[in-house]
Design goal:
Elements (H helix, E strand, L loop, with lengths): L1 E7 L4 E8 L6 E9 L6 E3 L2 H4 L2 E3 L4 E8 L6 E10 L4 E10 L4 E7 L7 E7 L9 E9 L5 E8 L5 E7 L14 E7 L5 E3 L2
Parallel strand pairs: 1-8
Antiparallel strand pairs: 2-6, 3-5, 3-7, 4-6, 7-8, 9-10, 10-13, 11-12, 11-14, 14-15
């Protein structure tokens, strides 16, 4: 089994398949095929360069399998290597993860005389790998426009906390509802992820 692991949706990661000849005669690899990949997320890009291949006893060859998940699911497929003796079958798997941050809570700041809340969010999956540069904190204003409240540097922490000022305050006359969003920004300006 080759487990490529957790990969953010929209990204690509790879794993190495090593084919060893543990027999006493040459093993001739004539072809390779990915089967049962209904989502089309696994690829072998260099198989034309390595096949056909004649592997002597005790020798081995390797190929790279790429995994590009399209959703937050577990994926699996079968790689079939065709040989002069019998097919070599390997199960491959990987999981797609959503790289967006998750806004966990919005809580009132006690005894502040109104207008302040704490925002707590779970880091983007890509933060731990150093692929997130910063987080943006946003609030929806009364005109239904997103307004930036500030930025927080990504520090490879599992969770972040931000003190935010709101556009309104609840009082005896009613409750003021605020809507917030967290964005996780990569080093590429046009690649970022939004919380739901």
């Amino acid at each position: 089994t080759l487990d490529i692991g957790l990969v953010p949706i929209g990204n690509t990661n790879s794993g190495i398949l090593n084919i060893s000849n543990i027999g006493i005669v040459n093993l001739n690899l004539t072809g390779v095929e990915i089967l049962d990949d209904t989502a089309g997320v696994f690829f072998i890009s260099d198989h034309e360069e390595i096949l056909p291949a004649d592997i002597e006893p005790g020798d081995s060859r390797w190929t790279e399998v790429q995994f590009a998940p399209t959703g937050p699911y577990e994926y699996g497929a079968t790689v079939m290597f065709y040989t002069n003796i019998e097919p070599v079958i390997v199960w491959i798997q990987g999981s797609g993860v959503d790289p967006a941050p998750v806004l966990n809570s919005v809580s009132d700041v006690p005894d502040d005389q109104g207008g302040w809340v704490y925002l707590s969010w779970e880091a983007s999956f890509s933060d731990a790998a150093g692929e997130i540069a910063q987080y943006g904190v946003w609030e929806l204003n009364p005109d239904e426009e997103w307004v930036s409240l500030g930025n927080v540097p990504a520090l490879q922490e599992p969770e972040y906390l931000f003190l935010a000022h709101t556009f309104g305050d609840s009082s005896d006359t009613g409750v003021y509802w605020s809507e917030f969003m967290i964005t996780a920004h990569t080093l590429l300006p046009d690649v970022y992820y939004e919380s739901e």
